[in-house]
Amino acid sequence: MDTHIGLSRVVFYALLTSLTAFSIDALMPALLVIGARVPSSQHFAPHHLISLFIAGMVIGELFVGPISDAIGRKRALLLGLMIYVAGTVICLLAPSIEMLVAGRIVQGIGVAGPKIATRAMIRDQFAGDAMARVMSFLFSLFILVPMIAPMFGQGLMILGGWPAIFYAYLVAAAGLSAWLLWKQPETLPLDRRIPFSGRRIFGNISRILSNRRVVLLIVATGLVFGAQLTYLSLSAQVLASVYEITTGLPYIFALLAGGIGLASFLNGRAVVRFGSTSLARAGFWGLCLTGCALTLAGLVTGGAPHIVIFISLSVGAFFSIGILFGNLNAMALEDLGQMAGIASSVVASISSLVATLFALGIAVMGTDTVMPLALGLLIAGAVALVLSEHAASAPRIPVIPLR
Asked: What are the φ/ψ torsions at residue 383 (nearest 5 degrees)?
């Protein structure tokens, strides 16, 4: 493949994948403002705009993979972007927090299209460590979005209030749709498509979930994502209540994103030499150790360690998460190459469900100390490490799709 074409496609894949991060991170600085200005509810709080956005993704991810296997990746991507636009419009018209949350759920359903179909596109063209390398370089490119998005979101709020962020989402979706239609070739040939059928879908899902190694890696991936989601959902309120920081959030989120970006870049270079399994093990240990250190620091200081310690350990944890993301996805999909679309759906939807439940469970601990964040990192890292070690000892059995 021509180098220029290859690079342009990786950039496009990064932009498509980053729509998820943009939809989360650009809104982070607005959560406190939305909480103060949008009519509240006893059932919903601002952090639900993050966690229930992910819940919407769970719904969308269940269907996008099979749809992309049946009609092709491009059409599935376009369908997802159209749903995303509909959810954005609902948010712009929302008179209450309930309607705003509903719009975010629809946005989440739609963003599953770019997330899953892009992953299937990559799996159509790469496998094994080569896929892990591409995924890592993709993460190192798209990580610029969560580094910039919080500052971009805060700037938009200054210019036009929190609704300006949702207008930016509309522009992003329109631009990606145009590039998709004019520049991106279809990666799934007609002879490899699997007709959309409920019996076939449930049969293939059953085959995927009967693979012990794949299931363990899916849950481990969900826990790692859950640690990140917990942090993103609660950190703004923790920083405000514990450290009285309300205006410097974009810079802190940029540091965290920089940790993930550096890890993804280094992982892309190291994975060919060391392999996905070894690097994932190192990432798990890093997440465990940083979570343990932050927990101990919280216990010693009554839940409020010095801000430098808190940020330093947080960056270390996000560096570990950056090592894990590219490798875990590649490892989970490695035995599922003949059904990349539905496999991407199953891996993403179940891991997102695990992440959402984990984040909602940790959130009940409150935001008055750093302990929920610290325990979220520690518990997720430790349990995921155990699961991944069991997965490494499980037999490798390629899953053959039901056609």
From this structure: -65, -40
